[in-house]
Write a structure and sequence with these properties.
The complex is a heterodimer of chains A (about 210) and B (about 170).
Chain A lengths: L2 H9 L10 H21 L7 H4 L3 H23 L7 H18 L13 H5 L1 H28 L5 H20 L8 H22 L7
Helix pairs in contact in A: 2-4, 2-7, 4-5, 4-8, 5-8, 7-8, 7-9, 8-9
Chain B lengths: L1 H4 L3 H20 L4 H17 L10 H22 L14 H15 L4 H12 L4 H8 L3 H21 L5
Helix pairs in contact in B: 2-3, 3-4, 4-8, 6-7, 6-8, 7-8
Classes of the chains: A mainly alpha (about 210), B mainly alpha (about 170).
Chain lengths: ~210, ~170
């Protein structure tokens, strides 16, 4: 087929298309996140001492940093779907933010926590459950970001998929933070990072498959 | 492009004609002559499928160049996947200027590779020697030559992916 024939084919019965919009796509992800959080809390799984803990620096750090990371990572992921985007910069920024959040955890250690042994603090048995919960909670956002990515045209789909995974993991961790009963920043850093990393790895592995510009 | 996004077929046709000319020039400098038409058509199809991703706030050139570069990398990958002893009969034919520019781009890219990889690619992919003849010339086994070609093209692809879309 010559180029002329192809161009004639493509331009005949051309339908209007709706342009991508950062606001619309961000709004969709936000709406899904809000619905997920509302459903999760409606199940009655919110930690019972939430009101008592509401003003504590530890909870503010946990919820605040995860919420900020979720919003920033989602914006960066959606931006990375444009053909001209450079996802590496966004990934660097998201990682820097995550590291800053982890470092911030060192300043909000509740009293009495640091006296326990390392194994007690990390508590692997509960930690694995936390990481698995974060993974499951991040799946709806990952599916939504995957759908947005398929509709868009990222020219570096693997990096865009990794960005999506980090964003989905941060959203899952943010939702889970409302029910997690553990008050140790070390526990949060280890297991929340593990959960987010698992989500990012899964997204990196499965989202670019069957994707073609 | 804005008119094309709104469904204006005539404007879209003119745009694709102009893009086709630009893409032909773009790929002539980067691919063997036999691959240029395929690459242009693949890119036009990608432009058509992803036309909703163009944001009118930004210039069209970088958007098209990003898609073209992606298709260039795809073509290089498909070249690397093909059996190394099958060469297009058109490889030595073509426009003289394009060949000169293309070989200059290729030479600068080959400088980034290990000497053994560059030599294997040059002999088999560019000069048309069989793997066996190339292995005798280089003094390596045929499988080592194939491995050098495979790794070299993979490295070239990575280098191209890291470079800017527009020169």
């Amino acid at each position: 087929m010559s180029n002329e024939v192809l161009i004639a084919d493509l331009s005949s019965d051309l339908a209007p298309v709706r342009r991508r919009s950062m606001l619309r796509e961000g709004g969709l992800v936000l709406a899904l996140g809000v619905v997920e959080l509302a459903l999760f809390l409606a199940m009655g799984v919110m930690r019972p001492d939430m009101r008592h803990m509401a003003g504590s620096p530890f909870l503010l750090w946990r919820v605040g940093s995860l919420g900020l990371l979720a919003v920033v990572a989602c914006v960066l992921a959606i931006r990375s779907y444009a053909p001209t985007a450079r996802p590496r910069r966004g990934l660097t920024l998201a990682c820097a933010l995550a590291i800053a959040a982890i470092v911030g955890g060192a300043f909000v250690i509740p009293e009495g926590v640091s006296e326990r042994t390392l194994l007690d603090r990390i508590n692997p048995a509960s930690g694995v459950v936390c990481a698995a919960s974060i993974f499951v909670l991040s799946l709806p956002i990952m599916a939504m970001l995957g759908a947005l990515m398929r509709r868009a045209g990222p020219t570096q789909p693997r990096l865009s998929a990794l960005s999506s995974g980090i964003a989905a993991g941060a959203c899952g961790a943010f939702v889970f933070a409302f029910c997690c009963p553990f008050n140790d920043p070390l526990y949060v850093v280890v297991w929340y990072t593990a959960g987010c990393a698992a989500v990012a790895g899964a997204a990196r592995w499965c989202l670019p498959r069957r994707f073609h510009l | 492009m804005i008119a094309a996004q709104n469904g204006h077929g005539g404007a879209y046709r003119r745009l694709l004609d102009e893009m086709s000319e630009w893409l032909t020039r773009y790929f002539r400098r980067r691919l063997p002559p036999g691959e240029v038409d395929d690459a242009v058509q693949e890119t036009l199809l990608a432009v058509h499928r992803r036309r909703h991703t163009y944001d009118p706030q930004y210039p069209l050139g970088p958007w098209l160049a990003a898609i073209a570069k992606n298709k260039w990398v795809d073509q290089l990958r498909s070249l690397a996947r093909r059996p190394v002893d099958e060469l297009s009969s058109e490889i030595a034919v073509g426009d003289h200027e394009a060949s000169v520019v293309s070989s200059s781009v290729l030479a600068s890219l080959l400088d980034e590779l290990r000497p053994a990889q560059a030599q294997a690619i040059l002999l088999v992919k560019v000069q048309g020697y069989s793997v066996e003849d190339a292995s005798i010339q280089i003094g390596l086994s045929a499988s080592a030559v194939k491995m050098n070609i495979h790794r070299g093209i993979r490295r070239l692809t990575a280098i191209i992916e890291k470079t800017a879309d527009v020169e």
